[in-house]
Amino acid sequence: MPETIKLSIFRYDPESGEKPFMQAYEVPMLKDGMKLLDALNHIKWELDGTLTYRRSCREGVCGSDGLNINGVNGLACITPIAGLKQPVHVRPLPSMPVIRDLVVDMDHFFDQYRQIQPWLQTETPTHEHERLQTPQDRDKLDGSYECILCGCCTTSCPSWWWNGDRFLGPAALLQANRWIIDSRDEATGKRLDRLEDVFRLYRCHQIMNCLEACPMKLNPTAAIANIKRQLVARKT
Amino acid sequence: MSYLSTDRVEHHFHDVVIIGAGGAGMRCALQLADAGHKVAVVSKVLPTRSHTVAAQGGINASLGNVSSDHWHWHMYDTVKGSDYLGDQDAIEYMCRAAPLLVRELEHQGVPFSRLDDGKIYQRAFGGQSRGFGNDGQASRTCAAADRTGHAILHSMFQQNLRAGTHFYQEYFALDLITDEEGCHGVMAWDIAKGEYHLFQAKAVILATGGAGRVFKMTTNAYICTGDGGALAVDAGLPLEDMEFFQFHPTGIAGEGQLMSEAVRGEGGYLLNSEGERFMERYAPTAKDLASRDVVSRAIALEIRQGRGCGPNKDHVLLKLDHLGEELILSKLPNIHDLALRFAGRDCTKEPIPVQPTAHYTMGGIPTNRFGEVVYSEGENKDMVFPGLFAIGEAACVSVHGANRLGGNSLLEIVVFGRACGNQVMKRLKKHRYYPPLDTDCWQSGVKRVERWLESGKSNQDGPRLADARDRMQSIMQEHFSVYRTEETMLEGVELIERLAAELDSARIDDSCRYFNSELIEAMELENLMVQARLTAAGALARTESRGAHARDDYSERDDEAWLKHTLASIKDGTVQLDYKPVRLQPMTVDSFPPKKRVY
Fold it and tell me: For labelling, which of A83, A227, B142, B177 has a CA lying 20 to 30 Å from the CA of B284?
């Protein structure tokens, strides 16, 4: 175990008007299993209070600290320092407007999520009791509902880099598929109608960066392929 | 431009402003937005980052999907779990409403796990019985694997997107706007842009969550800093029962991440260094599924008596590998990931090192069961503070009393989120117009920010923010942990008061106005310090052991002297304590009188 960790961190101060730059930091190896977030916290609390990043749950479930770490997107709180090549290059999620340092503007990302209407849609009257769903039908949601909206997948997608204004991106499409495959949802037809578009859906070219980037080990590419299959199936 | 005596503050008008976008705030917002009201949710983080997302095990409701059940049994368990400090009218209300509200969550899209017959999956959880404790363990906790909080929070967010709720995300609440007439709004700071906003509203709802970060070792997110409680105290209101902090028996040793009670609900158990299943000695019937306070004390005693595990003998082991890989990966997948990541253990093969870890703030802003904030005025101990509401972990209704049952916190947020929404609607009918505000009402909010931005220059010799926070957390950890004594607490109160005074001279490095997260940490520390002071004072004064407040020197519960709620406030800079009776009378059923608590 090396005694210190070298990091090179993206800095941008919107107040100064100066160009972004990479700043070198060195922090001690604090403990076995130390995560990147521990290093960022150490810098902020002990060395440089101006370093700016988001964090909340520190256990990989809230999605706050998606970052580009040595060129790969991931969550700082669950990325062990030990396996990383040094100096560890830490940058904000790619292709997003940077607000400051490692903090990016997520508005467009969340807006695309809203566009797929991510809520249960039904027409039949609600029962007094819960809607029934077989364990097998419920199992189909595994691999979709766990998404934490961190943005790691979407911001790793070259198609989204180019056409992010119109291509919904892997995170939103994974959630679109989550409602299409939910046996309780009754708006499948409408959902497919809204997706059938050369940009919104069909800009996915199976590059599969999203699969690599997802910290929850979900598979947006497969979800997108399923949407495409459904669109073909309903034509025949 | 508004009539305020400044151009620096943007003035907004909404029917309702909700501070906090966790489960309680979102559920309340949904109730109001669906009824057509103009709702603003002000949150210091982006949606879905709130700590509800980390709740694991489930939500209690007497659905009876696995075995017969009744809300009255749930009520009994909750009253007993609270060590009789819970208010029985609110507990009856919550347990009665639970089945309706959980089914409603399902209708709103929550992906609950399922039983073979297609109904919502329910698991066993601590302190839950059938037949008023006489007919064995209940299966009452409805679960979406071990990600129930995530499933509920995301569904609530989704429903609010549908309903068109206004989100002001990454806005930090600075100051409540109050006068003799009540609460009229809140001053807030747009974190990203560094601008001031005044949200005027006919009702203000504090849904800001717990304050677990007063302790060093906690399951809580960094953002759990009791912001709403501090706003209330600043407005001259008391906090209730702050000495009751829940220590969850199973946080990952040395790290703090929660290992859900669901592990034991599914059949896991605790072992000491001798390989003994020690809970059998402390709770012969419920064993590992005794109430959380009971299990945490048992672990603390095992460690104290030298039967802790590891080189420092400072933790015990949570064994679940006997459940089999298939069950673990289907019902406890998140636990499996967390243990692997933070304890370096594959729980399908080896046990997880765990220790009692600060987890839940039973105390909070005193409210009635409609979510209205109450305070004492002379003989009237339940005066409503008009226009101000509190829900969720930020509030003290009190449904948890001295100790919360697992699965009741997710329940509380939906039950009282909705109840509060309904009560707010009644208020909106009567209060249709915005009263004019004092044109200088924005001042103290602005001062709060500006002082910190200048602190790097003005307080050059003062303590660094992170050092002050570190000291506060160490003091609370060492002096107000699972077991407490007069001597340690006296010292703790003194230390925390001294540190609180030092905070005025503390400094931060960052003076930038854009996304200054150090500034936010500074104001969060101010908020935490308020709760730490009230927790410390309340704990020292309470000379008994009840629920999560366990003392070596007063080891028994004392109903004669202490069957009452603490009300702690800060007047002229010093902590003052007052008390009010527990509401022992339920809404419709007979009261459960205090009796000895055995599991």
Answer: B142
